[in-house]
Amino acid sequence: MNVFRIVLVADSHLGFDLPEHPRLARRRRGDDFFANYQRVLDHAVLTRPLALVHGGDFFFRSRVAPAIVERAFQALAEVAEAGIDVFVVPGNHDRSRLPPSLWLGHRNIHVFWEPRTVVLNAGGCTVAIGGFPFARGDLRTEFPRLLHGTGVKGVPAAVRLLCMHQAVGGATVGPGDFVFQPGRDVVHPASLPRTLTAVLAGHIHRAQTLEDRGPPVFYPGSIERTSFAERDDPKGYFDLTFAVDEGGRGSVAEAEFITLPTRPMVDVTLPSAIHPDDVGPLLALAARECRPDSVFRVSASDRPSPGVLSMLTAGFLRSCFPATANVQLGRSLFNAVG
Fold first, then answer.
1. How far apart are CA 257 and CA 236, in angstroms?
2. Ordered DSSP codes for 54-94
3. What are the pLDDT digits (tens) for 139-172?
4. Which of 60, 310, 328, 333 is 20 to 30 A from 7 via CA?
5. Is 270 within 8 Å of 299 (Cβ atoms)?
6. What digits encode the pLDDT tens for the residues 239-283?
7. Domains within the chain, CATH numbers bracketed
8. How far from 256 is each of 122, 164, 208, 245, 275, CA to CA, in Å?
């Protein structure tokens, strides 16, 4: 039996809260995203999988500072230089493309600019890895066309993998466990051919595996929490082991989810009738009761008095929490203060 591994990561959103020219010297959450990104790459170099697959939303938006692009792609090229094939699916935040970079020209880096398939050799077994960039439009017609365009179904291979950045019916997200239903923007599981060994996907920020019908769909989720809706979701990536039996049939032998460190996200709610003099002490108490590197969100049970709203400046909030923390206003307060 032939066995090989693939490391799957997605939704790194590099550049999140990492301005090129910050006006204030304070802790940035963007450093957490880069730290976890590097942890995944270090794991790949240390353990030597056949390939590293990034399932899309490499950056948090399509235009990021050149320094962030250089830093991110240079680290990726170091994985490729170690002899590991790297595959990247441009996601929706990337606007289905990646910024140009000389680092992406490395012979072992494969970006799915368009539908295509790359064939690798794993100990004498053929592994076909197909993919396409994030697609908009009616996926009920677009997905079959894109899948056909990759050519992955027709490649004689022991293992056939499809890489994409799309929602698949049955995926769940959010505190209310919202379930995506097949439709215009969601791929129907029945559209995934059984000739595929697995689907390696990004776009859904909660780590999960869909195995109801057809090939298993692996979502590693985002590498960090991009919003409070993800506050309870563990973050990490998959280390997938594939096995090819003596008859040349490939399957997923093991799917190990490796967690990444995340900071707690804590809600602090101001009572509706709180006096302005009590705001600072209440926030300071909340800070003392939590990890000093927590991410805090200050909200209110009802619209506070004008005196309280006038206090909620960025400088005041920073004075109530440790320098190692991050603090933000809840949407209702943010709109009221703004």
1. 7
2. E-S--BSSS---HHHHHHHHHHHHHHHHTT-EEEE---TTT
3. 999 999 999 999 999 999 999 999 999 999 999 9
4. 60
5. yes
6. 999 999 888 899 999 999 999 999 999 999 999 889 999 999 999
7. 2-260 (3.60.21.10), 265-337 (no CATH)
8. 20, 20, 11, 20, 51
